[in-house]
Write a structure and sequence with these properties.
heterodimer; A: D-Maltodextrin-Binding Protein, domain 2; six-stranded mixed β-sheet; 18 helices; B: 330 residues; mainly alpha; MetI-like fold
């Protein structure tokens, strides 16, 4: 009993300490401008004012807080806008804290000026950019042309920054006054990449970054980030990141005030927990992949972008890469036969329960479909048709073996593996469908699921037979996809594209042609894309299968006016890294509080 | 006595050296390349990828010959440097551990200790009551045999969703800022309770069954019969049986305390509770050499330390060890 009492007295003492931390009033000196009557000058006088110190916020108001999940994969590591591969864990650093010159609206395909007020090509090798006036960093300094020049120059200085290759064709970036920036290029710059970078390079403040070392810039943690964005870093812990609205954001007058005062980005260790939280209305937006959403959306438990299938927007194309260095995938006839043997409808209906849509054979997302050459696709495209598989294979000299599988023309057996990382449940289902339907069509393919690391190494080293990949997401240009599919030159390690090592200089030249078409030349882009699609669908070095969704299920319990197919707004219900400047921020501005009765 | 300890110490040092070497070696035998994995998430142009690959291979010290890497590793280790996590780049491994492991300690120490204590008490008690043995022991079997994942989900569903008494995710409410107040402490405890209870239940079942079987075995041993034949009271026989039965249980306890740094992966997944288990899994999947090494280093230290403590405790609680040692030194 005595121990209990002494324990109690400690608790009592503790609570007394807690109570004594109550807010107090402090006197501070504030600078105010006073107009002196009868004179034209304005005098600045220092006036003492009493400012009540607010009690530290310990609990967020539900009506001021936006709860999201599905973007962070792990605890937050850094706030460095240049470490792009860790940004999945610190979603918000790029887009909410640091900002880009432009934003991109995937639904209309328009680049809209953001930090920039305008930008145009004044000649084929000069791009003139004008910044908005009154841009500020969150420490109060002005954001000027110098900061833009400084940020781009970093790429010139440090090859370890991801955007340094633009300096292959960029000659100089110069500031003219506080608001004008001029980019000068070599002949034939890579217009498509540059336009993409306009909304993917995040501008950093020169006055805070110019004295940093190379290591700090390329790999530093950048604690207490000072950006220009609509939100500020607030706090984080192992399973959440919290961002708080920047009440002095320059964009409030231009774009409007983002509705939530705070954003709490939660990392759930399992997607099911996230689903439970959305249904209860505790979580506002989940960007996790959840297989049963079709049913839940129909019954009204959650809301989705489309009210009907496929429910989700298409975010990227799942492509089956074929290793063209290995037989029989080195034979275009075999690749074509395989394309007819894959039952994509089963992937869509069974593996995904209608949450995705089948891809166009040429692979471009629906948002870029205006660039498709429908004639070429009609003539050379493919659909699920095992009879076609049989006739193509037999026409190319393949023979049916006693085991019910086709043999290569030289009589050797064909045994192949299709892979995806273990634990990616939707893809695991999908490769099962691929293997089963190919086997039914007479091609012996087995589904294999190695660990992510082993899968990734097989992918980049080119030791796989065939595997899924979807690394080209929503973009302003078809070049993003075709640059992934046909990246050149072929190297020992293909870290970011053309994993099947399709080696065709004609194709590489076509993609390079597309890259160098000015972005405002829509006809030129169409012509270049048409040539690429013609060769791609003739040779079929990889097979686009379906569109992975922009997984988004949301609750209208607290926040409403979500982006959906009916809303005309340029907003996307997405919090993933790279999407804040593609409609994510606009969603925050558009959101409205559900009125409480 | 001194010889006993110096010999033990030598064995521990040797084991530590070997275990840490294996710990260093095994991740490097895994298929895959951590820097390549890391950079492939960045989507770079081929030429940029090559430059960055070189840069980061060097930054992680993976560009030198493997023998040199091994020496550098020991050198860094003695300077207290566990390297930088690849998966959680650029966070140092020590920081990753310091942030995540407290959650595991907070969860695992109470559940291990309490389930050990309660399970052993209960098991010993059940062994001498036929009624209890027939009703509660089967329950213990069911508890230990239940797949933990399933039990966890069941608890979360019943207490979290059906009754709505407990939260189902996080270490504290997502609308709270950590601070010192009753509300916050209460909130933390509420979030802690279900993960704790699930671990406790499973541990309790196992300990109780183990103790019950052990006691029955000891009661059947010759010394028990001999004592009984001498006319010793039953309580005395039980006391002796308990002392013998608890020895292997103590070893088990020390070992489970030694591996706390590995976390409780399934608990973390079911209750979405933070901790090192989930990060360790991600580290393994991403060939994060440094984080894997760091975690296992502490597991090695934990297990060795636990063993060392057992060695000492055995001296105190097991007269046979004491006599053996005295005989040796005499």
């Amino acid at each position: 009993m005595k121990r209990l009492i002494s324990g109690l007295s400690v608790l009592v003492a503790l609570s007394m300490i807690l109570v004594s931390c109550a807010p107090t009033e402090v006197e501070v000196i504030k600078t105010v401008e006073v107009e002196v009557p009868g004179e034209t000058i304005i005098q600045t006088v220092e006036v003492p004012v009493e400012v009540p110190v607010e009690a530290p916020i310990v609990a967020y108001e539900r009506s001021e807080t936006f709860y999201i999940a599905g973007s962070a994969w792990g605890p937050l590591n850094d706030w460095n806008p240049f470490i792009t591969w860790s940004k999945a864990n610190s979603t918000g650093t790029n887009g909410l804290v640091y900002e880009s010159l432009f934003q991109f609206n995937p639904m209309t395909g328009e680049l809209t000026p953001f930090l920039a007020e305008s930008g145009e090509w004044s000649s084929p090798t000069t791009y003139d950019l004008t910044l908005r006036q009154d841009l500020t960093w969150s420490d109060g300094e002005a954001l000027t042309a110098e900061d833009v020049v400084f940020t781009f120059e970093l790429g010139n200085q440090y090859p370890a920054l991801w955007f340094s290759p633009i300096w292959d064709y960029l000659l100089s970036v110069t500031a003219d006054g506080d608001y004008d920036v001029q980019f000068t290029f070599t002949e034939n710059p890579v217009y498509q990449e540059f336009s993409n970078n306009l909304y993917n390079i995040f501008i950093v403040p020169k006055h805070l970054w110019e004295d940093r070392t190379e290591e700090d810039i390329t790999a530093g943690v950048n604690e207490n980030p000072i950006g220009s964005g609509a939100y500020l870093y607030d706090t984080h812990s192992e399973d959440r990141n919290v961002w708080v609205r920047n009440e002095n954001w320059w964009g409030i007058d231009v774009f409007g005030l983002p509705s939530p005062k705070r954003i709490v980005d939660i990392r759930f260790a399992s997607n099911n927990v996230a689903l439970g939280a959305v249904i209860k209305g505790d979580l506002d937006l989940s960007n996790n992949f959840l297989p049963g959403i079709a049913t839940l959306s129909e019954k009204g438990y959650v809301d989705t972008y489309y009210a009907k299938a496929p429910y989700m927007l298409a975010a990227n194309t799942a492509v089956l890469f074929l290793n063209t260095t290995k037989p029989p995938m080195d034979d275009p006839a075999f690749r074509r036969a395989l394309a007819f043997a894959i039952n994509v409808d089963d992937i869509v209906n069974v593996a995904y329960a209608n949450l995705v849509a089948a891809s166009n054979p040429a692979g471009l997302l629906p948002t870029l479909s205006k660039y498709n050459d429908e004639d070429v696709i009609d003539r050379l495209g493919f659909t699920y048709d095992p009879a076609q598989t049989a006739s193509i294979l037999e026409g190319a000299g393949y023979t049916m073996g006693a085991d019910g599988f086709y043999q290569a023309p030289d009589g050797s057996a064909i045994e192949l593996e299709v892979t995806c990382p273990f634990g990616w449940t939707d893809w695991m289902e999908a490769i099962n469908v691929i293997a089963t339907s190919a086997q039914e069509a007479g091609i012996n393919i087995k589904a294999v699921t190695p660990d992510y690391g082993a899968w990734n190494t097989a992918l980049t080293d080119g030791t796989f037979d065939m595997t899924l990949n979807n690394w080209a997401g929503m973009s302003n240009t078809p070049w993003t996809l075709y640059n992934l599919l046909f990246r050149s030159p072929i190297q020992e390690i293909m870290g970011s594209g053309n994993f099947g090592r399709y080696d065709n200089q004609v194709m590489f030249d076509l993609v390079d042609d597309l890259a160098r078409v000015p972005v405002d030349d829509e006809e030129g882009m169409k012509a270049a894309v048409s040539a690429i699609q013609e060769l791609m669908l003739t040779d079929l070095p990889m097979i686009p299968l379906w569109y992975n969704g922009l997984w988004a299920q949301f609750s209208s319990a607290v926040w409403t006016n979500w982006p959906t197919e009916d809303s005309a707004a340029a907003a996307l219900p997405c919090t993933w890294n790279g999407y804040w400047q593609m409609g994510g921020l606009q969603m925050l501005i558009d959101l409205e509080l559900v009125p409480t009765e | 006595m001194r010889r006993y300890f110096s010999r033990k110490l030598l064995i521990y040092i040797l084991t530590f050296f070997l275990a840490v070497t294996i710990d260093w070696l095994i991740p490097r035998f895994m298929p895959g390349d951590p820097v390549q994995n890391m950079l492939s998430r960045a989507m770079l142009r081929a030429d940029a990828a090559e430059v960055m690959y070189g840069y980061y291979t060097k930054a992680f010290g993976l560009d030198v010959p493997i023998g040199q890497q091994y020496l550098n590793f020991w050198n860094a280790l003695f300077h207290g440097d566990l390297g930088t996590s690849v998966y959680m780049f650029p966070t140092p491994v020590t920081k990753v551990l310091l942030r995540a492991v407290p959650y595991d300690i907070f969860l695992l120490i109470p559940s291990i200790l309490l389930s050990w204590y309660a399970g052993n008490k209960f098991g010993a008690y059940a062994a001498r009551s036929k009624w209890l043995d027939n009703t509660v022991s089967p329950l213990g079997y069911v508890l230990t045999a239940t797949p933990y994942m399933w039990l966890g989900i069941l608890l979360a569903w019943f207490f979290g969703i059906v009754l709505g008494k407990f939260p189902i995710a996080g270490a504290y409410s997502f609308n709270l800022v950590p601070h010192l107040s009753w509300m916050f402490i209460w909130d933390v405890l509420k979030h802690w309770f279900l993960p704790f209870a699930s671990l406790f239940l499973v541990g309790f079942g196992g300990q109780a069954i183990g103790m019950r079987n052990m006691i029955i075995y000891e009661l059947e041993a010759d010394y028990s019969h001999y004592l009984e034949a001498l006319g010793a009271p039953r309580s005395l026989v039980r006391k002796y049986a308990f002392r013998n039965a608890v020895l292997p249980q103590i070893t088990g306890l020390a070992l489970s305390l030694g591996v706390i740094v590995a976390g409780a992966l399934v608990t973390e997944v079911v209750f979405s509770y933070p901790g090192i288990g989930y990060l360790l899994l991600a580290a393994i999947q991403n060939q994060d050499y440094f984080l894997i090494q760091g975690c296992f280093l502490f597991i090695i230290i934990g297990v060795l330390f636990a063993n060392f403590v057992i060695d000492i405790v055995y001296l105190l609680i097991d007269p046979r060890t004491r006599t053996g040692m005295m005989g040796e030194t005499a």
